């Protein structure tokens, strides 16, 4: 039964959605909308699983003292802080007791993490977690300078959320991405050597595409480089990409059919 | 070790150092590089430019801060063009950090519209851009494929409220705007694989005109869709953004950044050439030594 029920559900819904695509009738569209709603709802549960997984992975890292375990504290503190920033907003100009509240929440989480990762002192840490939770609840209850916003998107435009996003997250992402330029430059220098015919073709194609529209090279090569580059993109590249896309597409159709027909069962945790 | 051996084995820190020096110089120096425009980009500009007043341009902004250097300028140039042309803009963000990107761009663009500007010799007066009238920002929902399919039925299905928590039905712009049949085109600016979903599940299933703005590294993989007519335009990376700014006569970050990009490319080309000179010279030397050894 454990095996057959999921296979039956996959067969029925997979086959239905496959045929629904070709049936433009109103009732078919309505059933499709209903199923889309379901998919979105199930998806939100998967998000919750993802959040739990993030927490679990980092607690495990701290517990087993894996390489870089100290950074897991940074991740957890950032995680909790960002959630708090996204759920709260000032009511006026004053912050009131918001920051002691934030510290209490962070300490609560850290105490829970310590309780999960320490062997003999778990009750002490759990007691401290309870104490910090109590402090956080009291502050949230009696401080009127800020509030929780669960139903509206007010905090998304509030100062803390916006400034953390704009000044921390954006800068970190941009830094990580811009480091790639250096690695690409170093990798290009090492990899682009005309060792054989294929490597020479790759080298020439890379140089041509890189130097297209480069006005510094225009006096030497004129518009030939740009034209050659456009040809490379529109002819050999397009042909190769088409072949890849068609191959992947056919593979996806085959896999989907195998899943619907119950031949492929990896999604249930066994082959 | 002779000079050719050295050319082949330059320490990567020298490559980094040269790249930094050239990039900083190109960033600080005040000069413009001429931008040549490709037809893929021109198609998008012309499409938007010829839309009648009041048309809705759908702009899914599916990128994170990592790719904002390349993709943010596209958003700025397109949205500003739309608003100056009195078109309406519908926005979603289907990547996790996309809403932050879209919200930031919207705040800056709404401010920039308060100033009269001249493009191609035509002066556009200052305008007060109103949320819900000139634009609607639907926000983020996870699982792009599902959301794209849902919006094909009705925008209200995945997004009953907009990003700011207002019911879609109470927004003036959303009157008569139900699904992809009611938009003039969609321009997906993306640094994620959401573009694949927009092509397969959006354009493929519902057939609306779709163009894309993607990062430089992923541009090549979307050319087949341009060739097949599924995409009416492609903007590729910083170059694509700079070309759009050139067409819109709205010089922004991309045109400025082209100085840095083109200079950095020259550094990379120079190092590749040096490496190959060293490679060929040492290869010839080894061949000669081999022949002499046989003798």
Q: Could you explain how this protein is built, in words?
A:
Chain A is mainly alpha-helical. Chain A has helices at residues 4-20, 26-63, 69-87, 98-117, 122-142, 159-191, 197-211, 218-221, 224-260; strands at 88-90, 146-148. In chain A, 75% of the residues lie in helices and 2% in strands. In chain A, strands 1-2 form a two-stranded antiparallel ribbon. Chain A is extended, with a radius of gyration of 28 Å. The two termini of chain A are 17 Å apart. Chain B is of the alpha/beta class and 295 residues long. Chain B has ten helices and eight strands. Chains A and B meet through helix 2, helix 6, helix 7 and helix 9 of A and helix 2, helix 5, helix 6, helix 8 and helix 10 of B.
Task: Quickly list its features.
heterodimer, A: 271 residues, mainly alpha, two-stranded antiparallel sheet, 9 helices, 75% helix, 2% strand, extended, B: 295 residues, alpha/beta, 6-stranded parallel sheet, two-stranded antiparallel ribbon
Q: By helix and strand content of chain A, what is the structural category? A: mainly alpha
Oligomer: heterodimer
Beta percentage of chain A is under 5%
Number of strands of chain B: 8
Shape annotation of chain A: extended
Helices and strands of chain B, in order, run as HHHEHEHEEEHEHEHEHH
Q: Quote the average pLDDT of chain A.
A: 88
Order of strands, widest sheet of chain B = 5-2-1-6-7-8
Low-confidence stretches of chain A: none
Strand arrangement across the biggest beta sheet of chain A: 1-2
The count of helical stretches of chain B stands at: 10
Order of helices and strands of chain A: HHHEHHEHHHH
Radius of gyration of chain B: 24 Å
Largest interface: A-B, 62 and 59 residues
Biggest sheet of chain B, in brief? 6 strands, parallel
| Biggest sheet features of chain A | 2 strands, antiparallel
Termini separation of chain B: 25 Å
Q: Classify the helix fraction of chain A into a percent range.
A: over 70%
**Average pLDDT figure of chain B:** 91
Q: Note the gap between the termini of chain A.
A: 17 Å
């Amino acid at each position: 039964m454990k095996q057959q029920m999921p296979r039956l559900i996959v067969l029925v819904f997979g086959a239905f959605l496959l045929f629904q695509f070709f049936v433009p009738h109103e009732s078919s569209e309505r059933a499709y909308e209903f199923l889309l709603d379901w998919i979105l709802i199930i998806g939100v549960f998967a998000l919750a699983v993802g959040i739990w997984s993030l927490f679990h992975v980092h607690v495990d890292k701290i517990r087993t003292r894996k390489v870089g375990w100290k950074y897991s504290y940074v991740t957890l503190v950032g995680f909790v802080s960002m959630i708090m920033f996204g759920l709260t907003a000032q009511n006026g100009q004053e912050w009131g007791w918001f920051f002691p509240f934030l510290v209490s929440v962070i300490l609560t989480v850290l105490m829970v993490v310590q309780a999960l990762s320490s062997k003999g002192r778990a009750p002490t840490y759990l007691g401290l977690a309870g104490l910090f939770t109590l402090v956080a609840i009291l502050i949230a209850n009696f401080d009127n300078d800020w509030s929780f916003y669960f139903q509206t998107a007010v905090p998304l435009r509030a100062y803390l959320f916006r400034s953390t996003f704009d000044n921390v997250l954006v800068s970190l992402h941009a830094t990580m991405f811009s480091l790639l330029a250096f690695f690409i430059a170093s990798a290009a220098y090492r990899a682009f050597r005309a060792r054989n015919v294929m490597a020479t073709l790759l080298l020439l194609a890379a140089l041509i595409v890189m130097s297209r529209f480069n006005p510094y090279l225009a006096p030497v090569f004129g518009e030939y480089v740009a034209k050659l580059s456009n040809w490379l993109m529109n002819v050999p590249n397009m042909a190769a990409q088409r072949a890849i896309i068609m191959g992947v597409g056919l593979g996806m159709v085959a896999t989907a059919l195998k899943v619907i027909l119950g031949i492929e069962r990896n999604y249930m945790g066994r082959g | 070790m002779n000079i050719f051996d050295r050319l082949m084995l330059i320490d990567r820190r020298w490559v980094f150092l040269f790249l930094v020096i050239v990039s900083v110089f190109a960033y600080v120096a005040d000069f413009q590089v001429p931008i040549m425009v490709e037809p893929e980009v021109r198609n998008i500009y012309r499409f938007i430019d010829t839309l009648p007043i009041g048309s809705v341009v759908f702009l899914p902004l599916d990128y994170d801060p990592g790719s904002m250097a390349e993709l943010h300028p596209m958003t700025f140039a397109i949205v500003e063009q739309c608003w100056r042309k009195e078109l309406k803009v519908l926005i979603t963000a289907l990547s996790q950090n996309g809403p932050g990107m879209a919200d930031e761009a919207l705040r800056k663009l709404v401010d920039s519209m308060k100033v009269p500007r001249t493009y191609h010799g035509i002066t556009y007066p200052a305008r007060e851009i109103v949320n819900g009238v000139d634009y609607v920002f639907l926000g983020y929902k996870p699982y792009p494929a599902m959301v794209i399919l849902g919006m094909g039925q009705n925008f209200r299905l995945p997004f009953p409220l907009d990003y700011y928590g207002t019911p879609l039905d109470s927004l003036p712009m959303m009157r008569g705007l139900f699904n992809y049949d009611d938009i003039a085109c969609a321009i997906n600016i993306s640094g994620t694989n959401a573009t694949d979903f927009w092509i397969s599940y959006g354009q493929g299933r519902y057939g609306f005109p779709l163009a894309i703005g993607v990062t430089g590294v992923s541009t090549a993989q979307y050319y087949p869709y341009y060739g097949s007519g599924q995409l009416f335009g492609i903007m590729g990376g910083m170059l694509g953004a700079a070309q759009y700014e050139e067409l819109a006569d709205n010089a922004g970050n991309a045109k400025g950044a082209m100085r840095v990009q083109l200079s950095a490319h020259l550094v990379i080309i120079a190092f590749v050439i040096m490496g190959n000179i060293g490679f060929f010279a040492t290869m010839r030397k080894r061949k000669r030594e081999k022949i002499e050894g046989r003798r």
